[in-house]
Amino acid sequence: IIKMVPKVVFVLGGPGAGKGTQCQNIVKEYGFVHLSAGDLLRDERSKPGSEYGELIEEYIREGKIVPVEITCSLLERAMQQSDKDKFLIDGFPRNQDNLDGWNNRVASKIQLLFVLYFECPYDVSMNRCLGRGAAGSGRSDDNIESLHKRHHTYVNETKPIIDYYKGLNLIRQIDATQPIEKVFEDVKTVFEDLRS
Ligand code: UP5
Ligand code: MG
């Protein structure tokens, strides 16, 4: 049996940039499997008796990035358990530790197609996350204190990773401030290139 090399698109951008929203659209249109690192961590946290539950909750509330061993294991497991071979990895890699862990463990086993980058200024991100919190997201990090910390981490730790992929010519940048439908139009132009 010839096993296909899994194809991966990383999806990056600040808190509330619309990564999850657009990933849902991409899944419908292009048949990718959506793996949100944040969702996988939140699920792991909520498992009864989870070894890392408290650690994960603490990191998320503080807007800090969970050690890569944990995140990478969750991502690898999810990829292995899927019978599909095209993955959107949403919200990862977001710092140097994430990047090193991925490059050491996984990178050689997959094909990285590109990195979709949703560019969104802080005030827009902030308002979206606060709106989501007010609408009952239940996320322990959709509050002003956590949002400041998430933004700080994004600027200091994630932006350099985006710059790293820019240097490799892998960044596909999208203006995430537009309405959802308009953002998706731009996303589609990026994915249509895959068909040709
Ligand atoms: N919305 C979306 N698009 C819109 C648009 N174009 N116009 C108007 N509104 C729009 O959207 C957020 C809100 O905005 C929603 O209400 C949506 O309707 C609206 P969403 O699609 O959820 O945005 P997203 O970018 O996914 O925002 P999210 O809050 O999920 O991003 P984060 O990157 O902050 O969160 P994530 O879940 O990835 O990570 C959370 C935490 O987990 C991190 O802070 C970190 O502590 C931890 N983590 C790790 O440690 N390691 C990892 O690898 C990943 C996460
Ligand atoms: Mg998300």
From TrEMBL:
The keyword Ligase does not apply. Its main location: cytoplasm. One of its GO terms (biological process) is pyrimidine nucleotide biosynthetic process. It is found in: Cytoplasm; Nucleus. CDD domains: ADK. GO terms for cellular component: cytoplasm; nucleus. One of its GO terms (molecular function) is nucleoside monophosphate kinase activity. Binds 1 Mg(2+) ion per monomer. CMP binds at N98. Residues 36-66 are annotated as: NMPbind. InterPro entries: Adenylat/UMP-CMP_kin, Adenylat_kinase_CS, P-loop_NTPase, UMP_CMP_kinase. Its EC number is 2.7.4.14. SUPFAM superfamilies: P-loop containing nucleoside triphosphate hydrolases. Keywords: ATP-binding, Cytoplasm, Kinase, Nucleotide-binding, Nucleus, Pyrimidine biosynthesis, Transferase. The keyword Kinase applies. Its cofactor is Mg(2+). ATP binds at G16, A17, G18, K19, G20, T21, R132, Q178. A ribonucleoside 5'-phosphate binds at R42, K64, I65, V66, G91, F92, P93, R94, R139, R150. It catalyses: CMP + ATP = CDP + ADP; dCMP + ATP = dCDP + ADP; UMP + ATP = UDP + ADP. Monomer. PANTHER family: NUCLEOTIDE KINASE (PTHR23359). Catalyzes the phosphorylation of pyrimidine nucleoside monophosphates at the expense of ATP. Plays an important role in de novo pyrimidine nucleotide biosynthesis. Has preference for UMP and CMP as phosphate acceptors. Belongs to the adenylate kinase family. UMP-CMP kinase subfamily. Consists of three domains, a large central CORE domain and two small peripheral domains, NMPbind and LID, which undergo movements during catalysis. The LID domain closes over the site of phosphoryl transfer upon ATP binding. Assembling and dissambling the active center during each catalytic cycle provides an effective means to prevent ATP hydrolysis. This is UMP-CMP kinase. It comes from Pyrocoelia pectoralis.
